[in-house]
Automatic annotation (TrEMBL):
Domain Dyp-type peroxidase N-terminal: 27-185
Record-linked SUPFAM superfamilies: Dimeric alpha+beta barrel
Reactions catalysed: heme b + 2 H(+) = protoporphyrin IX + Fe(2+)
Protein name per UniProt: Deferrochelatase
InterPro entries assigned: Dimeric_a/b-barrel (IPR011008), Dyp_perox_C (IPR048328), Dyp_perox_N (IPR048327), Dyp_peroxidase (IPR006314), EfeB/EfeN (IPR006313), TAT_signal (IPR006311)
Lineage of origin: Bacteria, Bacillati, Actinomycetota, Actinomycetes, Streptosporangiales
PROSITE patterns in the record: DYP_PEROXIDASE (PS51404), TAT (PS51318)
Region (Disordered): 71-94
Domain of life assignment: Bacteria
Gene Ontology terms for molecular function: ferrochelatase activity; heme binding; metal ion binding; peroxidase activity
Family per similarity comment: Belongs to the DyP-type peroxidase family.
E.C. number(s) listed in UniProt: 1.11.1.-
Function noted in UniProt: Involved in the recovery of exogenous heme iron. Extracts iron from heme while preserving the protoporphyrin ring intact.
Length: 383
C-alpha cells in the first residue's frame, strides 16, 4: 500500500535516518519490515476514569508520533523548566529514529474485568477478541500473561525501543502500570522474503513461509480485520497473539542433526523442505514426518489459514539451574485468532518440537487501525 511506499522512500533517504511513518491506514509494526530489536510491554489500567484513559491515549499518540520520527517527547530532556522533571527521559538523545515503530493493542480485560465494564466499552468487544483456550502443555505464568493494553516497540537499536516504552510508562503514571514486559533480539521472522531469512535459537531459518509485508492480497485475506467481521471500529486493524515460549536449548543441543531436521521437516543448513534442495523449493508435506512442525503448521493442514509471524528470540540470563532462560517471544498478527493462532496451535498439539519447548506467557490484543493525522490511538473505539 501507499504507506509502505513511503517507508521504502524514507529508508533510501539517509537524512530521514530510517523513520517509519507513524500515520496511515494501518498501524506500523505489523506489515512494515521487521526491525532487529523488540521491547514489548503489557499494561494494566489502574484508573476507572474513562476520560483519564482517553486523555492518556492522546498524550501517548503525540509522544509516539514524535519518538518514531526521532524527536524527543514534549520539550525534550532539557528544554523545559529546571524546576520540573524533563518531558523526555533523555537516553535516545542524538540517536536516529532507528525505524522505531509503536503498535498498540487492547486486551479482553479492557472491555470487562471481573464482570465489570470499567470504561463503557463492553458491548464493543470484538467477537474475534476471544480469551485464548488452554492448550496441552501450557504452563502459563499469570505475571507474564494478559494485560489491558499492550505496546509493541520495535527498532534497530534496543536503546531506542526501551526509551519508547519507558517514556510511555512515564506519561501513563497514575493511569496505567506495566504488568509485564519482554525484550527481544534476532528477529525470528521477517516480512521481507527477499532478505536473508533469520535463524532462531534452535539454529534453523525461521520465517521462510511468512506473509510478506508487500503482499496486499494475503494481508487483506489473513491479517487485516474488516468492518464486516463483526466489529466496525477494528476495520483495518489486526489481532496480536503473543506467547513467551521457553526453549530447552541444552536438551536440543544433545539431539542429532537428523532428529532436529525431522522435527521441523526442513534442513538445518539451507532450510530446504524435506526431500528438496533449496529453501524456496516446493513443500511436499507427505515427505515430512507426520509430527513435523512445518507439516502441522502448514496452511494445508489448517483449512488454508495463514498468520503473519513477527517474533523475536530472548535470553533472560540463566535460570539458577545452569540453563539459559532462553526462547522465542512468538508474535503473530491475524484477522481472527479463532481461525489463526488458535487453529494452528491446536494442530501443533502433536508437534515433535513440543518435547523441547514450553509456553510460559500469553496475551491476545485487538490492534486498532492506523492513526490519521490529528487523530489518536483507539479513536475508533473511544471516539
Ligand atoms: C501457533 C503457531 C506457531 C507457533 C507457536 C510456532 C512456534 C515455533 N516455531 C518455530 C520454528 C519454525 N517454525 C516454522 C514454520 C512455521 N511455524 C508456524 C507457526 C507456529 N510456530 C507456521 C504457520 C509456519 C509456516 C508453515 C508453512 O507454511 O510452511 C519454521 C520453518 C521455516 C518457516 O517457514 O518459517 C521453523 C524453523 C519455533 C522454534 C517455535 C517455538 C519456539
Ligand atoms: Fe513455527
Amino acid at each position: 500500500g501507499l504507506d509502505r511506499v513511503a517507508v521504502a522512500e524514507e529508508d533510501d533517504d539517509p537524512a530521514a535516518g530510517g523513520a517509519v511513518p507513524f500515520h496511515g491506514a494501518h498501524q506500523a509494526g505489523i506489515a512494515t519490515p521487521v526491525q532487529d530489536r523488540l521491547h514489548f510491554a503489557a499494561f494494566d489500567v489502574t484508573t476507572g476514569d474513562r476520560a483519564k484513559l482517553v486523555r492518556m491515549l492522546k498524550d501517548w499518540t503525540a509522544a509516539a508520533a514524535a519518538m518514531t520520527a526521532g524527536r524527543p517527547v514534549g520539550q525534550g530532556a532539557t528544554g523545559g523548566p529546571a524546576v520540573a522533571p524533563p518531558d523526555d527521559t533523555g537516553e535516545a538523545e542524538g540517536l536516529p529514529p532507528s525505524r522505531l515503530t509503536l503498535t498498540i493493542g487492547f486486551g479482553p480485560s479492557l472491555f470487562a474485568k471481573d464482570g465489570k465494564d470499567r470504561f463503557g466499552i463492553g458491548a464493543r468487544r470484538p467477537p474475534a477478541l476471544v480469551d485464548l483456550p488452554h492448550f496441552p502443555g501450557d504452563n502459563l505464568d499469570p505475571a507474564r500473561s494478559g494485560g489491558d493494553i499492550a505496546v509493541q516497540a520495535c527498532a534497530d537499536d534496543p536503546q531506542v525501543a526501551v526509551h519508547a516504552i519507558r517514556n510511555l510508562a512515564r506519561i501513563g503514571f497514575g493511569v496505567v502500570a506495566v504488568r509485564w514486559s519482554q525484550l527481544g533480539f534476532g528477529k525470528t521472522s521477517s516480512t521481507t522474503p527477499d532478505a536473508q531469512t533469520p535463524r532462531n535459537l534452535f539454529g534453523f531459518k525461521d520465517g521462510t513461509e511468512n506473509i510478506a509485508g508487500t503482499d496486499d492480497a494475503l494481508l487483506g485475506k489473513h491479517v487485516w480485520a474488516s468492518g464486516g467481521d463483526g466489529s466496525d471500529w477494528m476495520a483495518g486493524g489486526s489481532y496480536l497473539v503473543a506467547r513467551r515460549i521457553r526453549m530447552h536449548i541444552e536438551t536440543w543441543d544433545r539431539t542429532s542433526l537428523r532428529e532436529q531436521e525431522d522435527i521441523f521437516g526442513r534442513s538445518k543448513g539451507e532450510g530446504a523442505p524435506a526431500g528438496a534442495r533449496k529453501e524456496r523449493d516446493a513443500i511436499v508435506l507427505s515427505r515430512m514426518k507426520p509430527d513435523a512442525h512445518v507439516r502441522l503448521a502448514h496452511p494445508d493442514s489448517n483449512g488454508g489459514t495463514r498468520i503473519l509471524r513477527r517474533g523475536y528470540s530472548f535470553t533472560d540470563g540463566s535460570d539458577g539451574l545452569g540453563r539459559l532462560e532462553a526462547g522465542l517471544f512468538f508474535i503473530a498478527f491475524q484477522r481472527d485468532p479463532r481461525t489463526g493462532f488458535i487453529r494452528v496451535q491446536q494442530s501443533l498439539a502433536t508437534d515433535a518440537m513440543n518435547e523441547y519447548v514450553q509456553h510460559v506467557g500469553s496475551g491476545v490484543f485487538a490492534c486498532p487501525p492506523g492513526v490519521k493525522e490529528g487523530g489518536y490511538w483507539g479513536e475508533t473505539l473511544f471516539g
